[in-house]
Prior knowledge:
This protein has helices at residues 30-41, 54-61, 131-135, 137-151, 166-172, 191-197, 205-227, 238-248, 260-268, 318-330, 344-347, 371-379, and strands at 19-24, 71-77, 80-93, 98-109, 118-119, 124-125, 128-129, 157-159, 175-177, 183-189, 229-234, 254-256, 276-282, 285-296, 302-311, 335-343, 358-362, 366-368, 383-384. By secondary structure, it is an alpha+beta fold.
Amino acid sequence: MTTGYGAGDEPNDAADDRLWTVLANDHLDPMVTVDASRFLQNFLPAGSPSVWSAEHFRWKLGEANPAGTGFMTVALHRGEVIGVTTITRKRFWDGQQEVPAAEIGDTYSSPLYRRQSRAEQPYIREGKADEYLSRSIFGRLVAETRQRALDSGLTLIYGTPNNNSMPGYVNRLGFFDYQSHFNRYYVRPGVSAASKRLAIMRPLARAVYPLDRAYAWMTAKICGRSAGFRAEELSAPGDMADALWARLQGQMPMGAVRDGAYFRHRFLTNPLAKYRFWAVHTGGEPCGVFVSRAITHEDNLRSVHLAEWLIDPSVRGAFRFMAAHMVATIGDFATKSYSFWAEHGWASQQGLKPLGFLARGRVPIIFHGAEQSRNLDSSGVKFHFTLASSDNI
């Protein structure tokens, strides 16, 4: 049950000092949304680039999203935001047709209220108070946000939780770990990162970097020569994505609908992130579209991410060519890493180890335990799930 913004601001006695209220903010009230953005930004290291803003939430949860409007719930203590959860609508492709889906995320709660506090109004389930959902800000916000999404007709709700939130989602909140798909984080360390970790590398770093870049150029050229690949930077990928999607959608696995509307909204109109767009051609025809993003960190080093791609699956080597092109073209001496997310089985067939890309940890994907999601897991369906399939990049 939700209350108005500011409700409960004046506690009746000292025992009420740790009470919090819940507010549905699907209409994105300007004051609440600004406060939620500031609260979330506090979880990042000082000097980090903005990841949240009111404009950002209007972009992904408001009417600009081609998938539809989303959901936000906040917890308040004396009018101050102490917890947030959102659900963002997505357009998914199930291999045959477009289906509605949504991502749950932005699930943060103030550590000051995680143990010694409770909701002003208990969460009632089956006629009695649910102790966990009456005390856990994270659990309560997830439960209420999810319920409004379910009431709107959504059933395919997924997320990519961290180690802190994973147990709560799976053990208490009706989500399950999708076991049929093994997504992994792939990373290639840059010379600058190696020189910071290994003292012996520091005096050699400036000399090693040109060799490292030349090797990436050579790999890209070898791939390009053997298959006739050519990379072209694009100012906007929408029209090419539309043409590729119309031609390839019947061959695409489950994942985002990667048409022009998706590329335009997800990347061109994102208010807090800048991307670069690339086309790969072979035989004079486009066979893939790629999106990269470079992020500068507080140590003044950069990470470069291959955020999204749409590739003709019948054209072998296109991804390896693009990965080599990313290292050779987008990176520089200040780049500490190059990375992407991909399904492990698919990535292992792309010939990336000679380029230095290593498989790191698993990227867990959870789904709300609705029948539709359970059926997907039991059928063994795998996804085309990239960094951009989440809101992480």
